[in-house]
Amino acid sequence: MALMEVHYSSFAMGSNISLNVFVPTPGSSEAITDINASPKYDYSRGLPVLYLLHGAFGDAFSWIRYSNIDRYAQDRGIVVVMASAENSFYQNLKGGRRYYDFFTEELPTFIQNVFPVSRDPARTYIAGFSMGGYGAWYLANRRPDLFSKAASMSGALNIASVISNPPEGVFPLESAFADVRDQDGSYRMEGSRYDLKTLIAENHQRGCLPRLYQAVGKKDILYEDNLAMRDWVRSQGIALTYEEGPGAHDWDFWDEYIRHILDWLLED
What we know:
Elements: E1 2-10, E2 15-23, H1 37-40, E3 49-53, H2 62-66, H3 69-76, E4 79-83, H4 99-114, E5 124-129, H5 131-142, E6 149-153, H6 159-164, H7 196-206, E7 211-217, H8 223-235, E8 240-245, H9 251-265
Parallel strand pairs: 3-4, 3-5, 5-6, 6-7, 7-8
Antiparallel strand pairs: 1-2, 2-4
């Protein structure tokens, strides 16, 4: 396996940035001449690629520090890209750091031209937890031409509720949505370009909706919001792969369910 920390100058960020890229390679326990090695490491065709997002207060190293993502990706032959997004909710910030542009334009172009990944949207995926769960669904629904599948774990999917009435103990993360804040301090999230329901309904109507996966623990602080989103998606006649378990809003849950997600992504 090859895990690379990459540093380069980003136009979208206006600064040097760091990101981590995992590329599966034949391991010591595998024979290079094994009949199954060629399809698993078909670099000439390009490997499937997952853009894996972190949650609030995380960074490009969160998944590496707290999960076994490298081993899971190695076993399945998929490239994983991890980059930092501050507490941006994967939006272009008023201060000048353009995270939406970075994750949907600059980063995919860079990855496709430097690493052995597929350029086919059907083999290009995005996933994340908490803030990154929202980010995965948001970016995929803003760019269904780029991502064919999007997976959320413990996602802040009801963004209006999360921003206006953050769960107890959660710092309000509002700077990314300043342009929909009224003078009285309230937010006009419903129907805005940040609202997942609006984006999903529009893509469903146009016939370009990415395939969606959702997982949440029964003790998660965002459990009720996730149930509400699940029920709304299904009420629209949209196919949704939904799973829940006994976990909470923590790495024990995310490390378990990222394996479920990787298997779902690589299904035919």
